[in-house]
Amino acid sequence: MSERFPGESLVTQYFQKYSPKEWSYNHFLQRNRSAIVKLPPFSADWTGIDGAWQNRFLCVAKKIPAWEDSKWKWCGTS
Q1: Is residue 61 part of a domain?
Q2: Is the dihedral of CA 24, 70, 22, 19 positive or negative?
Q3: Structural domain range at position 19
Q4: DSSP state of 69
Q5: Is 75 among the domain residues?
Q6: What is the DSSP string of 7-68?
Q7: CA distance 73 to 3
């Protein structure tokens, strides 16, 4: 099965590996930084890169029923 976007499997694996109490975009970035910088988009514009990864993270998160129940949702402290 091919990925719908670069890094889809990375995001999916994050949600499988960690419990809903740990889920946050910030936690995802911290745990996957070395892989993220090797995937597109390749740019010096960090705002654009961050926006792309936010969208990727949410695209996968919104398909997980536990996401709606997660009190940490977007900015959980890690």
Answers
A1: yes
A2: negative
A3: 8-69
A4: H
A5: no
A6: THHHHHHHHHHS-TTT--HHHHHHHHHHHHTTSS---S-HHHHHHHHHHHHHHHHTTSHHHH
A7: 24
**Structure token digits, residue 73:** 């949702």
pLDDT(76) > 90: no
> What single letter denotes the amino acid at residue 43?
S
**Distance in angstroms (rounded) separating the CA atoms of residues 69 and 20:** 8
With respect to residue 34, please indicate whether it lies within any of the assigned structural domains. Answer: yes
**Mean pLDDT rounded to a whole number for the chain:** 88
Q: What is the pLDDT of residues 2-32, one digit of tens each?
A: 899 999 999 999 999 999 989 999 999 999 9
Q: How many domains does the chain divide into?
A: 1
